[in-house]
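Cross-posted from the bioinformatics board.
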Amino acid sequence: MKNVRIYTLSTCPWCRKTKNFFTEHKIPFTFIDYDLADEATQNRISQEVDAAGATGFPFVRINDEVIIGYQPERYSKALGI
Amino acid sequence: MKQISMNVESRKKALRYFFGKVVDPLGFKFTPDEELMNFLLEQEVILEGKHGIPFCPCQPLRHDRSRDMQIVCPCIPFHRNHFDSIKRCWCGLFVHKDVLDPDKLPQLPPVEVSHE
């Protein structure tokens, strides 16, 4: 089973769509709503998304593959479904 | 910071009027997806109440004023090449004027688009 980690914003509709995608496909995942996290966590996430060249959320990591933005076709491909 | 209480619907109307004037000369319009537009404007009013500024609901605040100013809606001028490449802004509130079906517009990050 692939390890799926997602960074999201509670105000972002695309982040909600992303969570729904993995829920509907019964893929377990963990997520952090960046805007609701403490500042230390926000700083850590900031560095990680900067390193990947991301400016916005959702930020999805499937094993070692990073997918920035709501891209369901790429989620399916990375998951092999 | 004192929580700013305001009528959400009237503030959404005001933002919609103001934003429309700003993005029109940039070649953008509000997304035809009314539900998405309403949701995003509502989130921006909430963010404005919390931070005093209608930040983009889909980009993170970095606690760095120079970076955070680049995600004040409408943030198109700060991301012009990127958003022209994907024919939408990141959160999808605005799309190019010729866009009829916004669902077909991929949400691609700068690193995945070519900037002619």
